[in-house]
Every structure is written in C-alpha cells, then in structure tokens.
Amino acid sequence: MKYGVYLPNFGPYADAAAAAELAALAEQAGWDGVFVCDHIARPEGVLPTADPWIMLAAIAAATTSVRLGALVTPLARRRPWNVAREVTSLDHLSAGRMVAGVGLGISLGPEFSDFGEESDPRVRGDLLDEGLEIMRAAWTGDPVHHDGSHYRLNGVTFLPTPVQADVPVWVATERVRGRPVRRAAACDGVFPVGLSPDQGAQLLAEVASLRGGSTDGYDLVALGYDDAAAWEQVGGTWWLRLLNWYRPLTHGRRAIVAGPPAR
User: What's residue 263's pLDDT?
Assistant: First the structure.
C-alpha cells in the first residue's frame, strides 16, 4: 500500500505557498503522494478558497517524487479540453507524477446550484463520460474528433502530450455498483467516497467482475484518519490521510511530519 496526504483547498489550507511547504514536508517524511480537493464553494458557508490547480503547480515545483493530483475534479463544471491541458502541463512540471481524479461532484450545496451549473446527476454523468473520452483522446496527440450530445471537437490536436504514456485516471463513486462503478472500472482506479472498508471490498469485487476478473494494476484509493490497515486488508492500494479544514494548519503539519502508518 502507498500512503498520501489529502489537503483541503479551503479554510486554513487555502494558500498555495502553504500547500507547497506541506508537500515538501510530506515528501521528506516518507509519504508517497499529496492530493488536493477541488471545491469552489462549501455548504458550511463562506470560506477562503484557493484554486486547486495553482496549489498543484506549487506542489509540483516544491517536490521531486510524490504523486499529485486533484481528488476530485467535477468534470461537468469544467471544459474537458482545458482540464486535459492543465493535467498535461502539470505532468511536465512534475516530470510525470500527475494523477487525474474526476467525479460527479457534490449534488447538494452551492457548487452547482449557486453558479447555474447542471444539477441533475444523470446529465452530469453524461458530461463526465464525454469529458473523459475527450481528455484521454487529447493526451494521445492525435487529432480529436468528437460529436457528442454536449461537446463537439473538429479535429483538434493537443500538444505536447503528457510525460506519462498513460496518465492514471481515478474516478470517484459513492456506490458499490451501477454506472459510477462501470465508469471507474474502465479507468485506472476508484476513489470511494463515504464508503466503509467492507463496502470497499464489495466495490473492488464489482470492479474485478467488470474487468474480466482481475484488478491487477488497478488502484483502490481510500481516504480516512486511522483506518489504513482495514483498507489494506480489503485490497486498497492507496490510503490518504485526511487533514481537517476546521483545525489549524499546525495540526495538519504535525500529522504530516509524523509520517505514514508503519509499513
């Protein structure tokens, strides 16, 4: 199992310079990855909020070995070709360490409704599927032709291509079966949100059945405070230490410096 830290992009963590400092500390302490939230507003109220992609650029420049990425970007409220270029640029800046995390986003709260964005999760699912298709096509360097219900591209070529031959794509899901899991099974990893380790085992079994019985080379990425061992037992390949946005930055710094769970 690999271990990472999960930085909010709001509250006391809404600072790219602080993110760079914490990422450098995480690398020194032996963590394998540093990942950030991608929120633009929160249901708790008005909070300082930083752009996650600026945070990731600062993290990439301050580190040399940790994996990094946003977990997760609600692709339905972004232009997928812009995200494709941002991921590529960060993959170059980090010398091939970028992960692309995507999902539907939070249906409740202000992130969609207050901005006039699409709130129907079924439509957002359609947007996500088309967006994923466009992003992965863009990374090949071949002309992208796409004629979908929501997006159209007429032979656009995206250069440069990422450093990695295949940028890992991790897909969030709150369910253990159904369309979100089928989407995740077609990618490189799954990021269960709000699921227990036992539910994670069910999720991984469903992914395996959709991938011909095997999850070799596939990532199950869990998030928590002190349950890394339980997730490892059910097949987790990554465990991310969540840092509380409602605690001072010094609290997160101490958790990072303490290092990952004993290997």
Answer: 63
CATH at 22: 3.20.20.30
By residue count, the chain amounts to 263
Convert the pLDDT of each residue in 213-232 to its tens digit: 999 999 999 999 999 999 99
What pTM did the predictor assign? Answer: 0.96
pLDDT tier at 69 (50, 70, 90 boundaries)? very high
Q: Where are the beta strands (DSSP E) in 75-130?
A: 98-103
263 in a domain, yes or no?
no
The amino acid present at 165, given as its one-letter code, is A
Is 262 within the bounds of a domain?
no
Angle formed by the axes of helices 80-93 and 121-138, nearest 10°: 50
Separation between Cα atoms, residue 82 and residue 137, nearest integer Å: 13
Using CA atoms, how far apart are residues 210 and 208, in angstroms rounded to an integer?
Answer: 5
Q: What is the DSSP letter of 163?
A: S
Partner residues linked to 191 by β-bridges: 172
Q: Do β-strands 98-103 and 144-147 pair in parallel, antiparallel, or remain unpaired? A: unpaired
